[in-house]
Amino acid sequence: MTFSIVARDPKTGAFGVATATAGPMVGALVPHTRRGLGAAATQAMTNPYLAIDALALLDREPAAVALQSALERDAEAQRRQVILVDHRGGSDGWTGSQCVAHAGHRIGAGMAVAGNMLAGPAVLDNMLAAYRKTLDSVDFSAALLAALVAGAEAGGDSRGMGSAALRVQGDQEFCDLDLRVDSADAPLAELARLLEAATSGPYAAFFATVPRR
Predict the structure, then answer these.
(1) pLDDT value of position 1
(2) CA-closest candidate to residue 36, choices 86, 111, 109
(3) How far apart are the first and last CA of the chain?
(4) Distance between CA 172 and CA 207 in Å, rounded?
């Protein structure tokens, strides 16, 4: 019922997650980031601790090992779906056998996509292709959004879309972006509007004054 992308920006080292689903408030539980360590999306029958536990291990383990360690603590792992990217550019994913079809994930260098209850496998293929195509020509956050849009255009969640979220974390403890459309008829259009408002105009000028360490 959800499709997501996680990635590490090869230019800045920032981590990002973009996600959309048919239900409300996808931004509350699916996207997770940790400064300097990585990003994760946890979905299907969502267990947030899979992301929390895996991210906590990335200071000493690569993505594949961290994700496996987190899954071993979950007795219902076959109902879960998780993708993870680490600060080394490694990535990994898991789609349990009990996730509702079409369900799957794709892994690339510094990126991963996943979805369940999808219209078909083209959703994931198009997401990866759109992200790779746009990354060199647009901002990292815009490339993440482009992946979501491409997934939606390929059918996205087979039930439609009701919420979306986009999170980017750079070198600070707080996020550069933490945008959520908790419920809307056209959540990706609203997410695009919020991204524009966050990266230009008065809010962007204000955000530039926030103290950094």
Answers:
(1) 79
(2) 86
(3) 38
(4) 13
Measured CA angle at 148 (ends 145, 149), to 5 deg: 90
Strands of the sheet containing 80-86, edge to edge, are: 31-34, 38-44, 80-86, 91-95
> Per residue in 155-185, pLDDT tens?
998 899 999 999 999 999 999 999 999 999 9
All residues at 6 or more sequence positions from 185 whose CB lies less than 8 Å from its CB, including other chains: none
CB 46 within 8 Å of CB 80: yes
Closest alpha carbon to 147 in 41, 15, 19 = 19
Q: Among positive and negative, which fits the CA dihedral 51, 52, 54, 60? A: positive
Count CB-CB contacts under 10 A for residue 151. Answer: 32
User: How many Å apart are CA 11 and CA 175, to the nearest integer?
Assistant: 17
pTM value?
A: 0.97
